[in-house]
Specification:
Elements: H1 4-58
């Protein structure tokens, strides 16, 4: 059977591991939140570019001069 000192050491080790995992989860959550902001900005930019591209397609293009 484990002695009280061994159990205490195991408990301290588990608490330290839990604290590290909790900090890592918070850090990862922050990274994911920042990435989502970037994704949202890029999505909006693609949407604007797509709309501008479709607007350009609707306007008639200048015809090439006959000497080409």
């Amino acid at each position: 059977m484990d002695s009280p000192a061994d159990l205490t050491a195991r408990l301290v080790d588990l608490e330290l591991r839990y604290m590290k995992l909790e900090r890592l989860a918070e850090d990862l959550s922050g990274v994911v939140a920042e990435q989502q902001k970037v994704i949202d900005a890029l999505t909006a930019q693609v949407r604007r570019l797509s709309e501008r591209s479709s607007d350009d397609e609707e306007t008639p293009k200048a015809e090439r001069p006959p000497h080409y």
